[in-house]
Amino acid sequence: MSIKNKNKDYLTQHTGVELVPLRAPEKSSDPLKFWTNHPTENFLVDLNVFATGENQPPTKAPWSGPFSGRAQLIAEVAPVLEARLTFATTATCRNYTFALRTFWRLFDQLESKSDSSGRVLQRLASVRSLTALHEEAAKQAAIDSTRFGHFLSVANDARRLLRLGLLHWTIPKPTEPERQLIPEDQAKEIRIAVKRAWRAVMHKWERLDAIRRGELPELPSELQSEDPSVALQYATENKALQRNWAHFEKCQQRTGQILPSVLQLLDGAPRHLLKYHEDIDTTTMRAIAFPTVEEADIAFHMALIGSGWNPSTLIVGVDASTPDRVFQHPKDTKQNVLVLEEQEAADDELEEVSMQGSKRRAGGRLQFCVGLKKNPASPPNVVAAYLHRTSALREELRRQCNLARIELDRLRDEKKPLPEIASQFRRYQTIQQGIRNVWLYVDTQAKINWLDGKEWARYRVSFSDKKVTYLDRVTSMLNAERAARGEPQISRIVPSDMRDIFARWVHLQSGGNVLAVMHALGHATLRSTDAYLTNNVLNAESDDTARLFMTHLFSELEHGRIDLTILAQLVRHGSLSPEMEARLAEYRALLRSRVKVGCADPKHPPPHVEPDHKDGRWCRLQHCLRRCPHARFLPESLDGIAMRVEELAFMAEALPLETWMQSPFEAELSEGEYLLNDLYPGPAVANARAHWRQQIASGKHVVPGLRLAV
Length: 710
Known about the structure:
By secondary structure, this protein is an alpha+beta fold. Among the domains are: 31-113 and 123-161, no CATH class; 218-289, no CATH class; 293-450, no CATH class; 592-709, no CATH class. 52% of the residues lie in helices and 7% in strands. It has 26 helices and 15 strands. The protein has a 4-stranded mixed sheet, covered by helices on one side. Strands 13-14-15 form a 3-stranded antiparallel sheet, with helices on one face. Strands 1-2 form a two-stranded antiparallel sheet. A hairpin with an 8-residue loop joins strand 1 and strand 2 (44-46). Helix 6 crosses helix 11 (293-307) and helix 14 runs antiparallel to helix 15 (418-436). It is extended. The protein starts with 32 loop residues before the first strand and ends with a helix.
């Protein structure tokens, strides 16, 4: 993996492109009601409920429910909130108002209680009256750090305006999210499954495009079979698709709409009769021309897996309305930066394409993702293919946006009430968000929709009201296959886990190169990358290893044993196969000779090892290095072989030359040195030989038979 300098100042290349933010409705005369000025997500903040109170029953959300109004308190806080939320997103505005709602209810609960003497706490009406008592009550109520911090910052700003001292409350420590990184082999299975699904989508689109051109696509080679019914079924499906497309195209021409409604597609005919007599279905018709929600999910997760981006960056950061979709990379003439759509100009020498997106969490900092042009599963190519597929839907959204803009201008000109203008403005803004979103699709209600990252569970489980995510469906399919093979199940994962999985993959592929991980994740500093790896990858791997070790340890204890060899295999590589168990049993059944070499048949040594051996007795000489066919050289044989080689080397110096040349010791020494050099690591061999050389020289180890030979 290479690290290239990225020129992130592209403004000079796009002179003439003007980004015009949406103009929010006129400022309200109500001091407790104001609009934010976010470029794409203007939001109407209405604080009147905190002045008058609310009687709504509690919902599933924590700290929801009725509370009393505090007019003076919200009047002091409102200017601070308006200044703080000027450029905030919709989610940020809702987080702040939810924090106020939480503390409003906390104040009510605190004031409804009395102490041991029957005294009741005075009603809180101003930020002047906030004390340590309210801090302690918030902590006892287990209000999380986010809501606690939001309220504290707003209260302190309000006290500054009133020239009061700040509240030195201590914000509770945020709870650490429980993230369990699945093993790399399981992550690889998920990548392969999503990649196969994306290839199936591309093959399906090629087939549907051929139908739209009036062609009959041939049966793909991977589906061809000797069974003639397969080809017959494929041809029957093609004819049904042709009928559906002809009907859909006719409705488009008659209505003049890109996406006719269900009633327009039926044209007065009952749905069941149209399906029964002509095999025409409204869902099938729309799926021929436009992506379905499942295809959107597959494409999105394919790009997410390969990019290593946060889901929000891939959903919001890639703007599908940018005018210049493709432009030349400033550093590499063989690389283009693909911002939005597929490369329209033919450029055969182009080898790489790159995709960029802005990361909100990093203040809009650009993120880059490079992929090979020839790889259809690379994130830039996935985004390009999907944008091309949804171009007609985007044009329809632009048409709807123009109509919504005209209606909004009419309401403004006629001075309609603010709620009516705000409702139309939100509709106009929502359509704008769809135009910028890459992941458009047509839902079951025949409406243009898109992935927004707020709700992933959209697939209903059979015979149940429960909904699951696309990744849940993938892991469920893989777990069924793993259960049949007797392998452990894959834990539940969410889209945000894909960034951690990608970071670990880059870390492993680069040999632990932190710079490579930093470049792949788009971090600004090495400190960020180091902290990310420690918190999200390395700690998770350590926790998984410890958890796996304890699981297998207790499992071994249930069998009444602690076999370190088996335990190491289970933790590092997985379960033992029958072949591995048989080899381990055979290995442990081997007897060891004096030089720590295993012997497969110690009672029948060959004649060249022990010429005068008597049947039924054990091998007496144990000269395993003399090419004995029963010798089994094991990892722990290193020390014994090194001992014997040093014994022979000492004998070569002590014995007369004639005696040495007539003995088989020279061949044994040569064989031992060959084994040490060929089977064992050099540093370990050198240390073992030095040890035995010193033992022999000091007299602590006596060479057997040397005195008799001398």
